């Protein structure tokens, strides 16, 4: 996931955490008002991921920090980012330097080349932990957020920045943030797409949203032709969202019609995947853990048969 090192010049300020400077070693990714670096502390040889938020994304920083803190308070589940440290840093900094918002996590993950049945099993394990123990939805399962921990070979689910609390969750986010859909529209579930297409509030967070996003992600990762079509549609959707004001309703209905076409039961691939997407939509809430576990195990078993063995 490392990008061109010359882009490191993007960060002109030193990365400071607790008064200690972090050495940027590579660029892992760029998001909206966010840059993610591979970094190292002067006192350590371990590489860590450092997510740097613009001042304009301070709310996003605080939300992600709340979720990462909750994850760190539970028994460690391999494949979920572990919070190592965070700012605001009290460090010396240049006089007048803006406050930096940094999240330092491990592991630094690498690209997931193929979705295998064992990685599907592990992603379900991670989602079940989020849904039933932490009572949050991930909110942005998509191909870019599936990766591998190179040290253990475990599949990782990155970017908790769109996570939203289910009822009874100990993770408290500002109401406006908890209700706002900030996941990737192309992988959203029907309840989210319908609400947004009608200009309404997005549907309340529900585990089905992650399950649908995972099945759609797998579909895109398995079928080259669907992946190509999805890339084209993502571009058209991005154009709608880049308008001022963004045309979210039009973008959501474009995504809905995209999946209607791709999951058309008249094609062999469409037929199999449309059943799975429908099953993912029927996943129950996680208040009844046994019911949720049964339905998600069944979905996991079906999905595992459609990806690479191994
Ligand atoms: N721990 C990590 N290891 C490797 N790469 C990472 C890590 N964390 C993030 N990245 C890369 O950086 C990209 C952006 O990070 P992240 O998704 O957390 O930010 P974002 O603001 O949500 O961006 P986007 O809107 O593109 O999803 C990720 O898609 C991924 O490619
Ligand atoms: Mg992201």
UniProtKB/TrEMBL annotation:
Single annotated GO MF: protein kinase activity
Gene3D superfamilies xrefs: Transferase(Phosphotransferase) domain 1
Residues covered by the Protein kinase domain: 22-284
Signal peptide extent: none
Name of the featured protein: Protein kinase domain-containing protein
